[in-house]
C-alpha cells in the first residue's frame, strides 16, 4: 500500500494571480474586512498559487500581503490564513521553532512533524530551518531534548544528508530481512533492549523499505513491530517510534488520531488542529477524513464545527472540502 495521496486542496484551473491579488486588496481596503472573500480565495488556491498571489500583491501595491492580513484579521482565523500564506517548509519550521522556544519543549510537535515526513520533506525542512534561524535544526533540537529520543530525532534530520530514506530507490527484500533480524535481536531476543538499533533502522530507511521490514519482522517473531515497541521501549522514544511505524502503515489514520486528541477534553488544541489541517490539505487530508470517520463514527467536519466558531470555523471547514 503506497501512501494515500488524497488532497482536499488542489488549486484552481485558469488561475490569475493579479485578479486574486486585486480581490484580496479590495477585501481588506476601506472600512471593515470582507472575510468571506479571503476565505474563498485562499482556501481554494494551492500553496504555489498563494505564493504567486503574494508576489503579485507586492508588485501591484508595493505591500506585503501577510502584513496586511495580520493587520486586518485576528485570533485563530488569522493563524489559519497566515499558515496558508507561508511556503509549507517555512510554516513547519516556524512550528518547530515555536515548540522549542521558551520554557519546556513540546515533544509531541517534534514527533508530529519529524517522524511522519518522507526524506525529501525532511531535507527541505532542514535547509529552510537553517536559513530562517541561522542555526542547524539538529543543534537546536539537541539542546532541547535528551537521551534516546534526542538520538532518534538527530538521526532523522542528519541521515537525509546521506541519502537515506530515499523513496525513489525502490525496496530491497534481502536487506529488509536482515534489518528485521537485527530488530528482533535488539529487542525480543535479548534481556533489555538495544534502542540504538531501533533508532538507526527506523530513522534511516524509506517508508517503503520499512513497510517490508515490518512484514519480515512479523514473519520472524510472530508479533507486529508495534507490539514489540510497546513492550520493549518506553517514554518519548516509544511515542516517536510508534509514530514512524503507524505512518508507514497508515499515515492518514495516525493524523486522524492526532486530530481527535486535539479536539478532546476541555478546549481544543487549536495550534495542532490548524497545523494538521493546513499542512496535510495538499497531501492526504481527504484520506484523513475517511480514516477519522472509520475510527470514530463521526465526520471530521462535524467535530471541527463543534469545536470552532465564526470565520475560524468557516476557514477550516473550507479546507476540509466537500463531505
**Number of E-type strands:** 0
What is the subunit arrangement here? single chain
Major sheet details? none
Amount of helix: over 70%
Outline type = elongated
Helices and strands: which structural class?
Answer: mainly alpha
- Taking all Cα atoms into account, the compactness measure Rg is 21 Å
Low-pLDDT ranges? none
**What distance separates the N and C termini?**
24 Å
Strand residue content:
under 5%
List the total number of helices.
19
- Kindly report the average pLDDT value: 93
The arrangement of helices and strands along the chain is: HHHHHHHHHHHHHHHHHHH
Give a written overview of the molecule:
With 323 residues, this protein is mainly α. It has helices spanning 17-28, 35-42, 47-61, 65-72, 75-85, 88-100, 107-114, 119-133, 137-144, 147-159, 173-186, 195-204, 207-221, 225-232, 235-263, 270-280, 285-296, 300-307, 310-320. Helix 5 runs parallel beside helix 19 (310-320) and helix 9 (137-144) packs antiparallel against helix 10. The two termini are 24 Å apart. The model has no long low-confidence stretch (mean pLDDT 93).
Secondary structure layout plus pairing:
Blueprint: H1 17-28, H2 35-42, H3 47-61, H4 65-72, H5 75-85, H6 88-100, H7 107-114, H8 119-133, H9 137-144, H10 147-159, H11 173-186, H12 195-204, H13 207-221, H14 225-232, H15 235-263, H16 270-280, H17 285-296, H18 300-307, H19 310-320
Organism: Euphydryas editha
Protein name: Annexin
Family: Belongs to the annexin family.
Looking at this protein, list some descriptive labels:
323 residues; elongated; Annexin_sf; calcium; annexin; mainly alpha; calcium/phospholipid-binding; Annexin
Amino acid at each position: 500500500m503506497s501512501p494515500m495521496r488524497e488532497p482536499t486542496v488542489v488549486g484552481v484551473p485558469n488561475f490569475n494571480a493579479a485578479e486574486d491579488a486585486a480581490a484580496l486588496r479590495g477585501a481588506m481596503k476601506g472600512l471593515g474586512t470582507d472575510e468571506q472573500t479571503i476565505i474563498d480565495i485562499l482556501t481554494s488556491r494551492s500553496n504555489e498559487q498563494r505564493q504567486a498571489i503574494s508576489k503579485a500583491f507586492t508588485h501591484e501595491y508595493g505591500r506585503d500581503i501577510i502584513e496586511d492580513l495580520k493587520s486586518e484579521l485576528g485570533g485563530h482565523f488569522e493563524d489559519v490564513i497566515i499558515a496558508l500564506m507561508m511556503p509549507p517548509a517555512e510554516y513547519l519550521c516556524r512550528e518547530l521553532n515555536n515548540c522549542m522556544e521558551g520554557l519546556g519543549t513540546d515533544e509531541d510537535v517534534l514527533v508530529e512533524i519529524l517522524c511522519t515526513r518522507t526524506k525529501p520533506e525532511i531535507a527541505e525542512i532542514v535547509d529552510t530551518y537553517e536559513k530562517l534561524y541561522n542555526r542547524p535544526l539538529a543543534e537546536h533540537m539537541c539542546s532541547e531534548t535528551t537521551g534516546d529520543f534526542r538520538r532518534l530525532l538527530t538521526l532523522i534530520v542528519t541521515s537525509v544528508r546521506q541519502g537515506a530514506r530515499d523513496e525513489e530507490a525502490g525496496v530491497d527484500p534481502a536487506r529488509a530481512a536482515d534489518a528485521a533480524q537485527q530488530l528482533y535481536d535488539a529487542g525480543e531476543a535479548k534481556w533489555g533492549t538495544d534502542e540504538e538499533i531501533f533508532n538507526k533502522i527506523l530513522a534511516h530507511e524509506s517508508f517503503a523499505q520499512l513497510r517490508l521490514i515490518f512484514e519480515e519482522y512479523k514473519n520472524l517473531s510472530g508479533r507486529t513491530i508495534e507490539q514489540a515497541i510497546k513492550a520493549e521501549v518506553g517514554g518519548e522514544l516509544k511515542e516517536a517510534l510508534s509514530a514512524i511505524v503507524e505512518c508507514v502503515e497508515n499515515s492518514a489514520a495516525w493524523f486522524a488520531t492526532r486530530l481527535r486528541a486535539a479536539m478532546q477534553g476541555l478546549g481544543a488544541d487549536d495550534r495542532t488542529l490548524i497545523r494538521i489541517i493546513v499542512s496535510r490539505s495538499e497531501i492526504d487530508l481527504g484520506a484523513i477524513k475517511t480514516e477519522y470517520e472509520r475510527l470514530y463514527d463521526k465526520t471530521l467536519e462535524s467535530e471541527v464545527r463543534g469545536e470552532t466558531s465564526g470565520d475560524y470555523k468557516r476557514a477550516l471547514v473550507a479546507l476540509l472540502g466537500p463531505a
